[in-house]
Design goal:
Blueprint lengths: L3 E5 L2 H11 L7 H30 L7 E7 L5 E2 L2 E4 L4 H18 L3 H4 L1 H10 L5 H20 L2 H11 L3 H13 L1 H15 L1
Parallel strand pairs: 1-2, 2-4
Antiparallel strand pairs: 3-4
Length: 196
C-alpha cells in the first residue's frame, strides 16, 4: 500500500509555531497556503515513485492509507505529527518532506518489529554515537539513494551542506560517506528480511 500524503494548513497550529519562533518576519497565512499549494503540486507528481522506492529499498511497508502533513510558516521539521515549514525553493520543501517521511516509514505499524535486528545491529555497531546520529545514519543512506536515483548529486550535496550545522546529522553523513550508502542499505534490508 502506498499512502496518500494529505497536506493541511491549521491556522491554530501555525499560530503556535509563530509564538514559538517569535520572528517578526514569520510568513503570513496567505504565503503559507500559497507555498503549500506549490509544494503539494510538486509532491503529487513524485509521491508514488518516491514512497514505493522507500519501501523497496528498506524492505519496510507503509501501513497507513494516508498521512496528514501540516505545513507551517517556520519550524524545525519533524515526523510525528508530520510537520514541515515552507521554503523559498519548492524542491527543498520536497527534500525535507522526504526526510521526514523516511522517519515515518521507520515508525509505521509493525516496522519497528520488522527492523528490530537491523536497529540492534546499528545500535551495537555505532554504540559510541548518540541515538539521533544512529537513526540518521540509516535515514541519510536511504535519502542518498533517493537523491541519486530520482534527483541529483547537487541536491544531495545541498542537503549535506544545509544540515551540517546539526552535529549529529554531520556525523551521520560522514559515516554514510565512509561506509557507502549502498552497503548500509544492503545490511539493513538483509536483517529486515531475516525477520520476515
Amino acid at each position: 500500500m502506498i499512502p496518500n500524503i494529505e497536506f493541511r494548513y491549521s491556522y491554530v497550529y501555525d499560530e503556535v509555531w509563530s509564538d514559538i519562533v517569535k520572528d517578526k518576519k514569520y510568513p503570513s497565512s496567505k504565503k503559507v497556503l500559497t507555498c503549500l499549494k506549490k509544494g503539494e503540486k510538486l509532491w503529487k507528481r513524485e509521491e508514488r515513485r518516491v514512497l514505493s522506492e522507500l519501501s523497496k529499498v528498506t524492505g519496510l511497508s507503509w501501513e497507513a492509507g494516508s498521512i496528514p502533513c501540516y505545513v507551517v510558516g517556520k519550524c524545525i521539521p519533524f515526523s510525528d505529527p508530520l510537520t514541515v515549514p515552507i521554503f523559498p525553493q519548492t524542491d527543498y520543501f520536497l527534500d525535507v518532506l522526504i526526510h521526514e517521511l523516511i522517519h515515518q516509514l521507520f515508525m509505521q505499524e509493525g516496522n519497528l518489529e520488522r527492523a528490530d535486528k537491523s536497529w540492534k545491529y546499528i545500535s551495537k555497531e555505532y554504540a559510541h554515537y548518540s541515538p539521533n546520529t544512529r537513526v540518521h545514519i540509516m535515514l541519510h543512506a536511504v535519502h542518498s539513494h533517493i537523491y541519486l536515483k530520482f534527483y541529483s548529486k547537487k541536491r544531495l550535496e545541498r542537503d549535506k551542506r544545509l544540515v551540517y550545522k546539526v552535529s549529529d546529522y554531520k556525523i551521520a553523513w560522514k559515516i554514510v560517506e565512509e561506509k557507502g550508502y549502498e552497503k548500509i542499505l544492503a545490511d539493513f534490508k538483509k536483517r529486515v528480511q531475516q525477520t520476515l
